[in-house]
Specification:
Number of strands: 34
Largest sheet: 5 strands, antiparallel
Strand order of the largest sheet: 1-4-5-6-7
Strand content: over 45%
Radius of gyration: 20 Å
């Protein structure tokens, strides 16, 4: 399973059932040893970097930043050993790479002097750009499946914001909008390329939508006032939240490939963030279980909720692996939580004072950022043995 930082990361979502709470930080026998962080560095002359996606082989893609007035953003790839490579941006000097699939093929876009152009880079870094249909413009790629299907968003000839699909044969398809509406957005795609998830609009409210097997746009919660789902796993299960009525609370949920909805526990009237669904159905997020501090939370595949231990200080959980191990941030430091309740803060770079983790692979690689002694954010990774 690939792991990426979602487009429009941290969408805000706001069931009374049993709540499992681990009180305080756990002590005792360590769950595993941790190596790192490994400083992934920057391109020559740049000063900061960030990882945006990682695949199960450990290959990573992200951005390297440098310069002032203007500050440049350049797409980069790191191999599993941490060697950085600039991804070419023909026609422009900047760009972004947003996702990488299981074969090491990545997708993003190049910023030319006049527009954004979607790009796909193979595992060796060779680039292919999308020939945007006449009239369409400012197209950006958001995600790529293991079958090489790229999804993204563009402006139509009449300047409407729509999602699009770019197939490996070069064919690009406008994904349209809900009936009577003009706006849609893609946010994720299943590993086999058969299911795309994103957002649409109905009567002025955001709606979770999907496209299945090349079919038309459909709503995931057509009977409810509003909904959103931006994360999808390898089994085509999507995660997000919905509101039955305009004034009703947000209900976290998952949707199976056939569209069946499964509510997740959330015994609070306050807001929450649904971040990611893992390969086996664990879901992570953060929310205000006990305001004013924000709690890091984990939902098991059956929907049961666990508040991860934070000593009452608040935390953020952003990614989860197949075993339910969670990666996030606690007290300005990258942290993992294990299913046995152990919380472990990961190491810092020499002289650095903060870090954050926002992706974890099923093989135990945690990626995020860490500050250097000079106070610059660098892409980094840790390894859980």
């Amino acid at each position: 399973m690939r792991n990426r930082v979602a487009v429009g990361r941290r969408p805000v979502w706001s069931l009374m059932a049993a709540l499992v709470v681990f009180a305080g930080s756990m002590t005792g026998t360590a769950q595993a040893t941790t190596a790192g962080p490994v400083d992934l560095g920057t391109l020559p002359g740049d000063d900061s970097s960030t990882v945006l996606a990682v695949n199960e082989a450990g290959a990573m893609v992200g951005l390297s930043f440098g310069g002032t007035a203007p500050r440049l953003t350049r797409p980069v790839r790191w191999d599993a050993g941490g060697q950085i490579m600039a991804l070419p941006t023909p026609g422009g000097s900047e760009g972004q790479v947003r996702d990488i699939n299981g074969h090491g093929v990545s997708a993003g876009y190049i910023l030319t002097p006049t527009a954004a152009v979607p790009a796909r880079w193979d595992a060796a870094g060779m680039v292919t750009t999308l020939q945007v249909p006449p009239g369409y413009h400012n197209a950006t790629a958001a995600a790529i499946s293991d079958t090489g299907v790229v999804v993204g968003n563009w402006l139509t000839p009449d300047n409407q914001f729509h999602g699009f699909r770019w197939d490996p044969d070069g064919q690009a398809t406008d994904l349209g909008a809900l009936p009577g509406e003009t706006w849609s957005m893609t946010q994720g795609i299943s590993s086999d390329g058969s299911v795309i998830v994103g957002s649409g609009v109905r009567t002025g409210a955001n709606q979770a939508v999907r496209w299945v097997d090349g079919g038309p746009i459909t709503e995931l919660a057509p009977q409810d006032y509003s909904s959103g789902a931006h994360s999808i796993n390898d089994q085509s299960v999507a995660a997000g939240a919905l509101s039955v009525t305009k004034s009703g609370p947000r209900i976290p949920a998952t949707w199976d490939r056939d569209g069946t909805r499964h509510p997740l526990e959330w015994p609070s009237p306050h807001s929450l963030w649904v971040y990611q669904i893992g390969s086996t159905g664990y879901v992570v997020g953060s929310g205000y279980l006990y305001p004013p501090k924000r709690s890091a939370v984990l939902w098991a595949p059956d929907g049961d909720l666990t508040a991860l231990p934070d000593d009452g200080l608040g935390a953020d959980a952003e990614a989860v692996d197949a075993n339910g191990t969670v990666a996030g941030t606690f007290q300005r430091q990258a942290t993992v939580w294990y299913r046995n309740g152990e919380r472990r803060q990961l190491g810092l770079l020499p002289g650095g004072n903060r870090s954050q983790a926002y992706r974890i692979t099923d093989g135990g690689r945690v990626v995020g950022t860490a500050t250097t002694a000079a106070g610059k954010d660098h892409a980094a990774y840790w390894t859980l043995d």
